[in-house]
Amino acid sequence: MTTPQTPEKRRLPSFEDFIQAVKQKNGDAKAKEAVMLTLRNNIAHYEQKYKMPTAEFIPRYERGEFENSDDYLDFDLLGWYGDYRAVRAYDEGNG
User: 64 pLDDT exceeds 80?
Assistant: First the structure.
């Protein structure tokens, strides 16, 4: 008789872990710039999909305006917010 296994909890990689993975895969010295371009493209996709600029989305998201809405996918909103925060942190660190 086998015992059921509990699913292994996976932690999300940090931004630096992600950069290292990109560097290992691509061997690209400009991995951060490539990742930032991807994140910026993701943000542009969300803006187009939801017909809302990020400058409007962020304060509304932080106020919790989307919590009870079926018009938006939760994982999209979390992704949009996370991508924005990563770009912002990167821009502030390299300003």
Answer: yes
